[in-house]
Design brief:
Elements (H helix, E strand, L loop, with lengths): L2 H10 L4 H4 L7 H18 L2 H7 L7 E5 L5 H8 L3 E6 L2 H14 L7 E2 L12 E7 L8 H11 E12 L4 H23 L9 H12 L1 H5 L1 H6 L15 H7 L3 E9 L1 E2 L6 E2 L3 H4 L2 E8 L11
Parallel strand pairs: 1-2, 1-4, 2-3, 4-5
Antiparallel strand pairs: 5-9, 6-9, 7-8
Helix pairs in contact: 3-6, 8-9
Length: 297
């Protein structure tokens, strides 16, 4: 898996566009309406995010955000007093976040187009690194966590949201229901009896035809295609044990699951999220010792 494949996908599918749409004009007023509409819809769907951010101690702290989306969390962190900078792999996310912060008149340092595998900052630069829904899309997560450890100050904190392995969405919707549905629908779509009009089902069937149905249905591969769309090249799901394995330079201080989300099951909201929620929030602190040198140095 090459980083260029991941960059290409997220450039073509900016985070949230599939649900909330994209800016529909170039004027300041167009962008203002878009960001207001986007945040209203986003936080109606994921109301836990503001709650989780409000618990972070960021006032007067240097904060690095990895992965920017449309800049919603950047704005909230800055309004809470963070001395904020951010990085994203795609030009689209950087441009939209920069536009948002300019439209809202918010102070910031950045954002920068850069990879978490090679952060453009010196050692001990930040008090907090925050990343929502990004690091589970990074195949070389060991290198990513080394870079994060390098730029964090002693006593700093890493806060991440990762897709949860022990969740209703993964254990039931992805692993069982969606695989069974594709297996049953595959011959019907190929015969022209289902699908059509560029449906999501058609996209999955096309992917299965490219690599073979049984390989496509293999859970490790199927998970990639069922978190952020059938063209998504890479996703992983996490439990605490895997967090400890993939973030060896950090201690796990706190975890909690939020966001009950498991389509096609008609569940959404707060009920059961602490047990089977899809979003695993993890607070980590860097292990002692000197910051790690850049990979390859």
């Amino acid at each position: 898996m090459q980083q260029s494949e991941i960059e290409e996908f997220w450039s073509a599918h900016p985070c949230g566009d599939n649900v909330f749409g994209a800016p529909d004009g170039d004027r300041r007023e167009d962008h203002e309406r878009f960001y207001t509409r986007y945040d209203t819809a986003k936080y109606r769907l994921e109301s836990h995010i503001p709650q989780c951010l409000d618990r972070l101690d960021v006032d007067g702290k240097r904060v690095l955000e990895i992965g920017l989306g449309q800049g919603s969390e950047a704005e909230r962190l800055i309004r809470k007093g963070a001395l904020w900078t951010g990085v994203d792999l795609t030009e689209t996310a950087v441009r939209r976040t920069k536009t948002r912060l300019a439209v809202r008149g918010l102070p910031h340092d950045g954002p920068h187009r850069a990879s978490v595998l090679d952060l453009p900052f010196p050692e001990d630069s930040f008090d907090l690194v925050f990343s929502h829904g990004v690091l589970h899309h990074v195949p070389d997560v060991l290198r990513a966590q080394r870079e994060i450890h390098r730029v964090l100050r002693p006593g700093g904190r890493l806060v991440v949201m990762l897709y949860a392995r022990w969740s209703l969405n993964y254990l039931v919707s992805i692993a069982l229901l969606r695989r069974a549905a594709l297996l049953a629908a595959y011959p019907l779509v190929r015969a022209g009896l289902l699908g059509g009009s560029h449906s999501l089902l058609d996209a999955h069937v096309a992917g299965a035809r490219r690599v073979g149905l049984l390989r496509y249905l293999r859970l490790a591969d199927f998970t990639h295609r069922n978190t952020d769309g059938p063209d998504n090249p890479y996703s992983q799901v996490y439990d605490v044990r895997r967090v400890r394995r993939d973030f060896p330079l950090f201690e796990v201080d706190h975890t909690e699951k939020r966001f009950m989300h498991a389509p096609p099951l008609p569940v959404h909201g707060l009920i059961g999220e602490r047990l089977l929620g899809w979003h695993l929030w993890v607070h980590l602190s860097p292990r002692g010792g000197q910051p790690q040198a850049r990979p390859g140095t």
